Task: structure prediction
Amino acid sequence: MADTPTSEPRKVFAPWLDPNQKPLVRFENVTKKYGDYTAVDNLTIDIFEREFFALLGPSGCGKTTLLRMLAGFEQPTSGRILMNGEDISKIPPNKRPINMMFQSYALFPHMTVAQNIGFGLKQEGKSKAEIDKRVDEMLKLVQLEPFAKRKPHQLSGGQRQRVALARSLAKSPKLLLLDEPLGALDKKLREKTQFELMSLQENLGLTFMIVTHDQEEAMTVSSRIAVMDKGIMVQVDTPAEIYEAPNSRYVADFIGDVNFMEVEVLRHEGAQIIVKSATLNEFKLETDSDLKDGEKVWLAIRPEKFIVSKEKPSDDQNMVQGKVWDIAYSGDTSTYHVRLEDGTTLKAQMANRRRVRNRDITWEDPVWVAWSYRAAVPLRN
Amino acid sequence: MNPTRFNWFNATSLALGFGFLYLPILILIIFSFNDSKLVTVWGGFSTRWYVALFQDEAFMEAAWVTLRVALVSATFAAILGTMAAMVLIRAKRFPGRMLFSGMIYSPLVMPEVITGLSLLLLFVAIGLDRGYWTITLAHTTFAMCYVAVVVSSRLLSFDMSLEEAALDLGSTRLNTFFQVTLPIILPAIIAGWLLAFTLSLDDLVIASFTSGPGSTTLPMKIYSQVRLGVNPQINALSTILITLVAIGVVITSLLGKRQAEKEGKQ
Result:
C-alpha cells in the first residue's frame, strides 16, 4: 500500500446509471426481523462490480445486519439476496465467495500473522508452497513482511488492522465486506488507511462494501453511499449528490452540518421560485425539484454556502441581516453563528484566507449573510 | 508507596490466618518424617515410613485404583463438562435453558452424602456391580459440573467473531471448533481437568458409597486405617497426597493467570 493515492486520476465510474449493467449483488425486498423488532425493512438495492459501497447510519439502523446477511451469518426473514443473479440466501457462510473484515479484526490469537493470513487458503486444501507464496504476497501488500512470525498480541492496532485486511483479501473474494474497519484507529492513521483502502480496491479491481457510522469516512472512500435509518434505506447516491442534494431532512442532517429554514412556496417566476419564510423576507430559489405553489417546504443550506460580509452583497443573491453571536475558530475555517432578526441562528462557515488578526468581522458586528439561488435545497417532510 | 503499610496488625492477621489453615498440615508433614513409631513423639528425622508405605501392597493397590479413577473420571468430566458449557453459553434460546443451567450447577452445592447415596441407589437399581467403574462414573458425575463452570466462564469472554471469521474464510463448523475454538479454550479445559483430577483424588464420601469389594481408594484406606489408630505411614501417605493436590492447584491457577495476561494484552 502506497502513501499516496494512485497516480492516475479516477475515471468516471457509474454502472448504476447504465441499465445494461448487471449488479454483482442484489437485495430484493429483504426484511430481517428479530422477534417484534424489524432490523431491515423491505429493502431493495443493487451493488455493482468494482464499487466501493458504503452503508452509513447511526448504530441500530440495520447496516451491520445487512452486511451479516450478505456474509451468511444471518438469514433474511423474507426476500432474496442474489449474487450474479443467483439466490445465495441458503448458502452457508463458508461456501460464499465473500470475505469479511471484522470490526474486532477477529485475528486468531493462537496463530502467527502468516498462519492467520493463510487460514482461508488452508481450508481450500491448497498446497503448502501455494499458501506460502500467497501469504508472502499479502504480507508485502500490507507491508508486514518482518512480522510474519509474530502473534497478534505482539502487534500494534494499526498492524492488526492490516493483518485482518490481508487475511480477508488472501482468497481474492469477489466481494469484501468491511465492518467499521477503521473504527479502532486514531484519526491520522484512519485517514491514511482510507486512502490505502481506496487504492487497494482500485488496483485489485475488487468490490468493497463498507459499514461505517463515520460520514467523513463514507464520503472519502466510497463510490456510492446508502444512508440508512431504522432499517430503511433513505437515500442511495454518490457522496456529492448525497451532500449537495439530500432527499430528506434526515440525510441532510446526518451528513455534515446544515441550516434549516421553513418556507412557503409563493409563486413561480420563470426558472425561479419565490418562497417566503414566516418570519423573514422572501427568497428566490432555483431548483430541479418540482414544487407547487402554496406548498410548505424546508430549505436546507450548508454552512459553507453562506457568505458573511459587513457590506451589503450584490443583488443577484438571497440575503438576510443579523448580528454575529459567536465565532468558532477551527484553523482552516471559522464558523459564524449569526443571530437573525427573528431570533433564529444561522451557522455560516468561511475559509480563513486571511490571518485571524486581520479578520474584519468580530463579535456583535451587524453582518449580511448571503447565499446564491441554487445553494438552498428544498426538502419536503 | 503502598497505600497500606505492613504493620503489626496485618502481620498478626496473616500469621493467625495461615496458622489456622496450615499448622495442622505442617505438623502432619513434619511427623511423616518422624523416626518414632509413636505419632506424637518426635524421634529424629527418617524416611522409613515412606519406604514402608511403598512396600505395603494394600496401600499401593489403593493408590493405583485412586490414580486410575482420577485419570479416567477427570478425562470424561473434561469432555462432558466442556460439551455442557458449550451448550449453555452458546445456545442462547432453547426451552428449559434456565432449568438446565441451574441443574448443571446444583451438584456443586449438593451434600456429597446425598450425591453418593443417590448414585448408590441408581447403581443398585440398574444392577451395576459396584467397583472401579461405579466410582469412576460417580466421580465423573460430580466433577463434570466443576469443569462446566470453569469452561463456561472462559466461553463467556470468547469473541464469537473469531468463529465467524473462520467460517467466513471457508472453514466448516467442525473444523472451526478444532482449529479455532478448542485451542483458545484449551487452557480452561486443562484447568477443569486438573480440578476434576484433584477432586477425585481426595474424595472419600462418594467413593465409599459407590465402591465395592476389591476397589478401595486411598482416602477410604486412610480413613479405615485411622479408625484403628493413627500410624506414621498414614502421615507419609497424606504428605504425598497433599503434594500432588498442591501441584494440581498451582498448575491450575498458573494456567488461569497466563490466560488472563494474554487477554489483557489484546
The longest helix of chain A spans residues 187-204.
